[in-house]
Design goal:
Layout lengths: L13 H14 L23 E2 L2 E2 L11 H18 L2
Antiparallel strand pairs: 1-2
Helix pairs in contact: 1-2
Length: 87
């Protein structure tokens, strides 16, 4: 039987959260951000997106495609993911 992973509790600095939501507001609507395309393994490939309600970014793991709003969202997301993965 497969065990469920233990929940992870981390504190994200308020300034990081504020910048993240400000950058998401600037990028609205998220679905209008230009998708960057990248090669991924069919069996091991993954996607990283941000969804707010019914709005969703393109795959953030493929880069910003030269779009500054997308670059800012990717920077914030990478920072938050790193904080969540820290031990």
């Amino acid at each position: 039987m497969r065990q469920q992973p233990e929940p992870v509790h981390r504190t994200i600095p308020r300034a990081t959260v504020d910048r993240f939501f400000a950058d998401l507001a600037t990028a609205n609507p998220l679905a209008s951000l230009p998708p960057a395309h990248c090669m991924k393994s069919v069996s091991f490939g993954s996607t990283l997106t941000i969804a707010l309600g019914t709005d969703q970014t393109p795959d953030l793991s493929c880069g910003d495609g030269g779009n500054s709003a997308m670059r800012d969202v990717i920077r914030d997301t990478d920072e938050i993911v790193a904080l969540l993965q820290a031990k």
